[in-house]
Every structure is written in structure tokens, then in C-alpha cells.
UniProtKB/TrEMBL annotation:
Molecular function in Gene Ontology: ATP binding; ATP hydrolysis activity; ATP-dependent protein folding chaperone; unfolded protein binding
Region feature (Disordered): 234-259, 717-754
Pfam families attached to this UniProt entry: HATPase_c_3 (PF13589), HSP90 (PF00183)
Organism: Cerrena zonata
Statement: the UniProt record of this protein carries the keyword ATP-binding: yes
NCBIfam families: PRK05218.1 (NF003555)
Superkingdom in the source lineage: Eukaryota
Compositionally biased spans, kind Acidic residues: 735-746
Protein name per UniProt: Heat shock protein 90
Record PANTHER family: HEAT SHOCK PROTEIN 90 FAMILY MEMBER
Residues annotated to bind ATP: 36, 40, 85, 90, 98, 104-106, 187, 404
HAMAP family hit by this protein: HSP90
TM segment ranges: none
The family this protein is said to belong to: Belongs to the heat shock protein 90 family.
Amino acid sequence: NEDVPKQKFDYQSDVTRLRKIVINSLYSHRDVFLRELISNANDALEKLRLTSLTDKQVLSGAEHLNISIKAIPDKDGFGQLVITDTGIGMTPEELTKNLGTLAKSGTSEFLAKAENSDATGTGNLIGAFGLGFYSSFLVADHVRVASIAAKSEKNPNPQQYMFSSSADESSFEIYPDPRGNVLGRGTEITLFLKPDALEYLSTEKLEELIHKHSSFASTFPIYLLTQKSIEVPDEDAEKTETEAPIPSPSPESDETDEDEAIVEETIEEVKKEEEPKTKTVAVDEWVQLNKQPPIWMRDPKTVTDEEYELFYQVTFKDNTKPLAWYHFSGDSGSGVSFRAIIYVPSFVPESYWQAGIQGDAKDVRLMVKRVFITNDLGEDALPKWASWVKAVVDAEDLPLNVSRETLQSTKFLKQLKTIITKRLAQILGRVQEEEPEKFKEISAVYNNVFKLGAVEDSKSREKLAALARFSTNQRNSTSLDEYLENRKQGQKHIFYLADMGKDTAVLAKSVFIEKLHARGYEVLLLNDPLDEIFVQNIKKWKAVPFQDVAKAGLKFGDESPEEEKAELESFAEQFKPLLTWLKKEAGELVRDVIISNRLVLSSCAIVADAHGYTANVEKLMSSNTSQKKGFIYEYTKKLKYLEINPRSPLMEGLLRRVEQLPTEEEGRDLDAEDELHEVASVLIDGALVRSGFEVPDSNAFFTRVDRILRRSLGVSETAPTDTRVKPAPPVDPELPSEEELVEEEVPFPMPPQQPEQVKWEVEEIDDDDNLIADVKVETARHDEL
Ligand SMILES: Nc1ncnc2c1ncn2[C@@H]1O[C@H](COP(=O)(O)OP(=O)(O)OP(=O)(O)O)[C@@H](O)[C@H]1O
């Protein structure tokens, strides 16, 4: 062993940091190591199986595809745990690169968070990050990885190499395995267990862990070496103590029965040769732990909620529980039958909203006859709204050697897109109807996704818009259907007010809805940028059009036109001098000044023309700088009215003052004119602000407000403010030292508690959403396009 030339490598610094976190703060999570190693073994086997579809020679070296786990206690009470797979294996270069560096996205962000949080916090973080191979150091103070890559054209003569590292070293060694190519193909990980981790030598403990966390992790058999006592003839005792071979059947065959046959046969033979004189000996036996067929192949009635959850967590490496799921089988219409489980995760990753409009679905695991093919269905495999979905789909009839490229052009993939989006909308609709409390949790996460989907996906528009929830002036959450149930007689519109970024409590007090609110009408209060886009795309719900209440032309639906007209005309006549004067004062800012029919409390407001921009749309447009410059934008921006409330004492007072202004040139009172000029200016700017618009020059506005305040306080309007300040010190040519730059540490804010799980029973529904009970899954769960 010592003669072999060993090459020493330093770990990449991120790996050193990660190993430190693992070793220092994750004691209570150390069970995860086994799950992580089994998951890596499974990935390696899947890679091998996929490669073998196009290059058969990779299969040489080891006959079967499996994972085996063996505990080896030693005489001093310590011991090793060995996890072996016959997967794709690693070349010495791959050992160095894969195990010595961290190539995950978000690594430094994760490390910084983990280093700043306590053990529990770190535990939560790992679930999202995945420690992978490094979790070995939770239980082992020394790890050895022997690996031999699969034979290929590029590597026709692979050699078995060893990676060796201690938990407390910042370097690792790579060298040819002194035992030679004993593995044939694949990877063997030997954990030299820490003195306080010897519980992992117990087969009961290992069995329990694998059942709990990993029985769904692989479609390949997972074997555990166990010991059982049998009676044997005295002289045969020596023979039976040798280790049994792993009874790996091919995963495509009916493995369960064959396995049992092998074990029983051995016992039978032993029994046949039984002599009267026997003794009890321990024999090694490889027991397959994941004998059940994969979960998606089982009858949904036999799968428990816990099994669905665990399968989700293991398969998609998410330690939170899914909010809902749906398990079904169907026929793609082009003759491909399949089984699938679709999950609604408990969160939408932040990157979802940051990424472009293309739905980059990374978590639809497509299999063909249990063989994993890909989880990359291409960029437009799903509409953006559904691209967060996590699903497994197992197709029966696609050609097995379908490559990713040819796959993308198959009809099946297009149909899969329709199947998944349709089913997803269906699951969500059903939770909404049948489990309102659970739907609340889903809504808290996905409300904007529903709105986005209604805009983007015309096929699912109705279903998704029905799921969207809105705040109103009367309640926190309503669907469009519930809104219509509350519609008043004669009301011909769904009223909404949109102002992105504003709190709904503030919107509820908006000048635009004061009359609607006072009269008891319900108004949707929209404060997300998506909302405006949503209503403009949807336009109507159940034939009732949306009406932006910040626009001219608001109708309640119960007006008597004659009376209203007469009243407005009489006010217009009475306020004519003020309207004319204000129009001159407002200049270019508005098209006209008119008597308002919508104000109750406020004195005035700026209302957009039916074709103009409301404050919200103006904000949306101005965030897009290219649109800002156009002539149409500038023109449309001016399509505004200043509405005044004829019942407001302020307006009445202003009318009187305007009427008192001498019209003749010689009698002009310039001071009074200036003062009124200022009042008008503050009034118009105030109306803009109150209506959500930006004031053209906010400095000038506040200088005027300042002057009016001084006047009302009796302070001199012209007295200057003391504007002296201490000047900055002279230029410093030196950079500040590190001590000078040290800032107070801000503790890392912990994420909120996970929402409670939503249980979902799998039931059969047909395309008209009717429930079909008690029909066998093979025939009943059917998806047709
Ligand atoms: N048993 C194995 N057989 C072949 N390659 C392996 C095996 N275990 C690990 N590797 C390689 O080492 C790399 C690093 O493994 P590690 O577990 O640290 O991260 P990961 O598997 O990529 O991520 P995660 O485990 O979080 O999903 C893997 O991507 C894989 O290429």
C-alpha cells in the first residue's frame, strides 16, 4: 500500500469551508450522509444506464447495476461502512475534480449563510443546498473512495484509483488502488466511522435509515449485507461463513421473485444435506431493501401520503413537503401510455421571477420503462407559469434509445406539455373547491403564478384566472366569481383600482373609490405590477368587463341619467369662473377641468381619460425607458382631467375668491393674484399626488407648501433659513484600514416556518372533472388529449 505513488491535492477553499460547516454544526443531522451517498450512487447508475443506450461497452466490467452497503466491524470495536455502486465510476481526474471542488451554483451564498447561522438554521439550509459527498465527514474521520470508470472508446482501459482524505485535513490524496481493478466498474466508498458514529455499523439502524429516506431514491436494487442464523451440519460450518455474492438481477427483470428464490434455494440445499448433528452459524445474506416497484408504478390506493412526500423529498432534493400532488396514468393520444406524479412544491424559487418569460422546466424527470432519460425537456417544454412543477413521467412505449435531441422533436413531448399543464390546473382547481384552507396555503405561494398563467396561457386562462385572489375595499381575499356574487343591481363592471407597490390599506382610502366605497360597491385593489397586465389581458370575467376606477367614465349602473345630467350642468354653470380659471392655471397638464361625480370627501382629483394612462400604467410605462420617449406616450400622458368636488367647502371658497378678482386691468390686486396662483398650483400638484401621479417638480411643490405653512403659522415668509454646514475634511490619499471598515455584525434573519403540509388524496377524475371511484388504476386513470 505504501509503495504506491500518491499525489497530494489541496481542496478548493469552498470545500474546506463546507467541510468545516459539516463537521462543526451538523451533528444532529448526520443521518443525511447515507441518503446523500445512495443518491450519488443512483445518479452514477442512471448515467451508466443512459450511456449504455448508445454505447454498450460501458456495461462491461460488472454484470449488474446495483448499490450495495456493507458494515465491517473491526476487532477494536471500531469499524467501516462501505457503499458500493456499479455505476459510471470516475477516472482519477474526475475523482480530483468532483470530490476536490464545489461546482454548485449559489455555493458562496450558501456558505456565507451557513457560517452565520446556528446549527438548526444550518440544518434547514442544507436541505435546500445538498451536501452531497461531503456529508461523509459527518460520520467518518477518514474516507476512501475507490473508483473505476466505465469502459468507453475514449477510455478503453480504465484503471481503479483511490481518493483518500481525513476529516481534519485540507488536502486529499489520489493514487492507483493497490488492490488493482477489483471493482470491475463503479465506485466504492469506505467510511472509517468516528468513535461516536459506530451506531451506523448496526444493520438494523442502516435498514431503518434506508427505508425511511432512500427506499424511493433508486430504481436500482439496494442491497444490505446482513447476517442470519441457520442450522448447518457441523462439518459444513466453515464453508457457510464466507460472504455470499450479491444476487443482483437485472433491474428490468422481475427482480423481486428472483431474489427471494435465490435466498430460499440456498437454505433448501442446506436443509437437504442436513445431518442429525447440526450447529447454528451466522451466514451473510444480501437483502434487497427496495423491493417495492417504484412508487409511480404502484396503485395510488396503496401509496401513503408519507410515501409520496418522502419520494418527493428524495427525488427533488427538497426538504420541505409538497403542498399537493396528483398521481395518474394515461395515454398521450399518439399511443404512448405513461404514468406520472405531479407535485406542487411548497415554494417557488426566487430565480423563477427573475428569469425570463421562457419556462425552463428542470424538474420533470422523464423516464422510459423505468429508465431515467432526462430532466431537461428544453426551454419551452412548459409554459412559464407551470415551469416550477416537479414531476416524474414514465412512458411505456417510447423507443428506449431516444436521445435528448430526438426526444425534443417527438410528438409525445408536446403532448406531455399539454398533459402536465392541464392536470396541474385541474389539481389546483380541485383543491380550491374541496379544501379551502389548503388552497389558502397554495394561494399564498402561487397567486401571482395564476395571474401570470392566465395572461400567458390562453388554454388554461379560465381555470387559472378563477384561482387568482384579490384584495378589495371590503375583504382581504376574493376570487372573481365571488366578486360577481357581490355585484349590485345594475352594476355592469368589475371595478378595480391599480397602483403598484401601494399597500391595499392605502388604496382602500384612495380618492378614486371614495364614492364607490361610501355607496357599498366592492372594488378590487391591485398593487402588483402583474395585476394591471392581468386585467388588461383578461378584459372580462363571465362577460362582465373590468373598469379602472381611476379613469373617466365611471358608471355605478343605477344612475338616472336625466337627473344626473341636470345636476352636473347646474354645478358647471355655478362653478364656471373657477373651472375656467383653473384650466388656465393647469395649462398643459390636463385636457380640461370638470365637475366630478366620483368625489365625496376629497376636493379634487386627476382622472385619466378612457384612452389615457392611469398613474399605475404611467409608472409601468416609465419603467420601460424605450417607450417613454415616443410621441404617443407624451400625447397619451396628457389625456387627463382635473375633477373638482362642487360640494367641497375648499372649492366653494376658492370659487368666491376667484369671483372677487377684479377683471379690469386698473383694479388688479397683484398680491392676491400671486397668492391664488400659489393655491392653484398646490391644489393641482396635491391632486396629482392624491391620484397617484408624480408631481412634475416636487421641489417647487414643497417650497410652495412651505410658504403656505409659514403663512398659516404667522412666520415670516421671507426670513432665510440658516444654511451653514460644516465643510468636509480635506482629501485623504490613504485607503481606510481594515479596522476602520469593520462594521457591526447583523445576524442572519432566519426563514419563516414552513407552511403546514397539504394532504392530497389521489382520486380518479375524467376530463369533465367528474370523480370516478374504485376503478383500477391501469384502466381508469386516463389522460387523453
Ligand atoms: N458514487 C459516485 N459515482 C460516480 N460519481 C460520483 C459518485 N459520487 C459522487 N460523484 C461525482 O462527484 C460529484 C460531486 O458529488 P457531490 O455529492 O458532492 O455533489 P452532487 O452529487 O453533484 O450534488 P448533490 O449531491 O448535492 O446533488 C458528482 O456530481 C459526481 O460527478
